[in-house]
Specification:
- The protein has 79 residues and is mainly beta.
- The protein is built from 1 helix and 5 strands; from the N terminus they run βββββα.
Amino acid sequence: MFTIEHEFDATVITLVDEGGDLPLLDDIVINAFEDCVTVEQVDPQTDEVLRITLSMTQLRDLAAALNLPEGSYRLERKT
């Protein structure tokens, strides 16, 4: 399950773990801003929010990597 909310400065996507018989993990919150995307999840051991920030270039590369076979790649930016 997931939710999508449009805030003033970001689109917020929350992924809820519905793993069935498997142990459930905490929700993942993705904040999409104009210049970056953050991925957040609460660490159950420390109860602190862990945050990863991706630049728009890194996000583009991640999206491309999901559809490519093993290897090393560099995407050429169109001008």
